[in-house]
Amino acid sequence: MKKALTKFFFFVCLLQSIVANAQGGSPYFNEIQSFKKEDSVHVPPQKAILFVGSSTFRLWPDIQSYFPAHTIINRGFGGSTLADVIRYESDVIFPYKPKQIVIYCGDNDLASSDTVSSTTVVQRFEKLFTDIRTALPNVPIAFVSIKPSPSRWHLKEKMIDANRRIKTFLTGKKKTSFIDIWNAMLGPDGKPREELFKEDRLHMKPEGYAIWQKIIEPKLL
């Protein structure tokens, strides 16, 4: 009897695990499903500019008002890493067939673990870039540099190195651009400007996004 109960308990746990993975075990599964539901109700515009990446884009909900001359689709989600964007690229990038893709991601990768290096970030970006080029070979790709923030200033050397190497990777490749916002967010003391950030000292206030708008706008097609 005891052996039978043990087997039954194991089966129940296994079933719960399978259901959990199917219904949202993967990071940001529910958020991705919300995008799909939204797209089924409101057909996404054709030939729009797709912004994709982490919460820095997700928390820019009025992004369209910053770029009125362009049609924007915002698919920033969660506190995503480049690995997460790769995981969901078939959901948040490829279906839209955009005229341009703007990516912001990377600092969450570095903050997720001490074992994640700038090399890890660069390799993940190269993987994402290659996947996009394979699926959408003619779509221009822009990468917004990893931003400096007060809460993650201890990661600055890794951020600077990742930015430098991603810029080098993109140099010479057709239909690409590296959008550098790093210096514009630093004060006279060479540190991130506190007034640009919310209380968490990570996410930006409208003043920070206003700086981004001025730098990103000339790079949009």
Helix/strand order, N-terminal first: HHEHHEHHEHHEHEH
Radius of gyration: 20 Å
Overall number of strands: 5
Please give the share of residues in helix. Answer: 40-55%
User: In what range is the share of β-strand residues?
Assistant: 5-15%
Q: How far do the termini sit from each other?
A: 69 Å
> How many separate structural domains?
1
What low-confidence regions span 5 or more consecutive residues with pLDDT below 50? 1-24
Question: Can you tell me the CATH architecture?
Answer: 3-Layer(aba) Sandwich
Strand order of the largest sheet: 2-1-3-4-5
Q: Spell out the CATH superfamily.
A: SGNH hydrolase
How confident overall, as mean pLDDT? 91
The largest sheet is:
5 strands, parallel
How is the CATH topology named? Rossmann fold
The CATH class turns out to be Alpha Beta
Q: What general outline do the C-alpha atoms trace? A: globular
The structure class reads alpha/beta
Task: Figure out the total of helices.
Answer: 10
InterPro entries: Ester_Hydrolysis_Enzymes, SGNH_hydro, SGNH_hydro_sf
Protein name: G-D-S-L family lipolytic protein
Organism: Flavisolibacter ginsenosidimutans
Pfam families: Lipase_GDSL_2 (PF13472)
How do you describe this structure in short?
The protein is α/β, with parallel strands linked by helices and 221 residues long. The chain contains ten helices and five strands; from the N terminus they run ααβααβααβααβαβα. It comes from Flavisolibacter ginsenosidimutans.
